[in-house]
């Protein structure tokens, strides 16, 4: 069974994933992403994945057969295991628990050649609805405290399969990165009685120099303190602390903004590998007035080296204002 271990110095939890076990010698040769040939995510190969937990189908086809538009399956090699109890325990000064959680894969399209941003708005909206449905289902499990939705696009971003997909991991703890956002935004709210994310949205809309895309419901922009070149954030204009609790009409507006943003990044940067991460409120919390859910898109254009790892500082060679100006020049309707 996987195991969660806590760093006693800074409080960060680490997953020791025995299900993905590697011997020391396994790291000598990097493993490339699976390329053309057999793909377990392509239609007709449904029996090569675990049974689906959700699928959107247009023709009434049977589960685990072709005919789907979006399909969700448990990860065949999960980082965390859904069966079992948490089993919290100590080992001297160290804290650990069983690696309990859920790990699912969203197969976004039947077309092996398309990326998320290549899909039409209706299809992207379906993918976003699939995220919502799985989050609503998993939050009923009282063992889980957080759900992270993330996408690794491209081998350099961590994708092991070419076929476009997103992943979800439910954890029994709140990740440290999210906890830092929660604590920082609460301090801001305690001081000013306003949500810092709402203030960011207002300033980016009024200032405009880092703005990439906006519509009635959402805004995307180059983050003021970008860690990486072209680090792009997507936020709802209205205050919503939890992704899955937005009004139904919001998901189409999000699909439109996300497609616009991903197309600009792809065309401007020659289809870069990237990570896309959803940060939403912890599970089973009341509406948080200080926290605002958002998406962070991180193109893999530079490498994180010793200074960054050792200090926590990031060196970004491209000012976000220049990145935004470059993205806004891209013709997305051509």
Q: What features would you describe in this structure?
A:
- By secondary structure, the chain is α+β, with helices and mostly antiparallel strands.
- The protein has 2 domains: 3-19 and 38-175, HIT family, subunit A (2-Layer Sandwich), CATH 3.30.428.10; 177-328, HIT-like (HIT family, subunit A).
- It is built from 6 helices and 14 strands.
- A hairpin with a 3-residue loop joins β10 and β11 (218-222).
- The longest helix is centred in the C-terminal third of the chain and has 20 residues, at 250-269.
- It is globular, with a radius of gyration of 20 Å.
How would you summarize the topology of this molecule?
Layout: E1 3-6, E2 13-16, E3 54-57, E4 68-74, E5 89-91, E6 94-98, E7 102-107, H1 121-138, E8 146-153, E9 165-171, H2 176-192, H3 196-207, E10 211-214, E11 218-222, E12 232-236, H4 250-269, E13 274-279, E14 294-299, H5 306-311, H6 320-328
Antiparallel strand pairs: 1-2, 1-6, 3-4, 4-7, 5-6, 7-9, 8-9, 8-13, 10-11, 11-12, 12-14, 13-14
Q: Based on CA inertia axes, which overall geometry fits? A: globular
Per DSSP, the total helix count is: 6
Work out the number of β strands: 14
- Helix content estimate: 10-25%
The major beta sheet can be summarized as: 10 strands, antiparallel
Instruction: Give the distance, in angstroms, between the N- and C-terminal Cα atoms.
Output: 50 Å
CATH architecture of the largest domain: 2-Layer Sandwich
Give the full name of the CATH homologous superfamily of the largest domain: HIT-like
Outline the low-pLDDT stretches: none
CA-atom Rg in angstroms: 20 Å
Give the CATH level 1 class of the largest domain.
Alpha Beta
Strand order of the largest sheet: 3-4-7-9-8-13-14-12-11-10
The CATH topology of the largest domain comes to: HIT family, subunit A
Question: What is the count of distinct domains?
Answer: 2
The whole-number mean of residue pLDDT values reads 93
As a percent range, the share of strand residues is: 15-25%
Structural class: alpha+beta
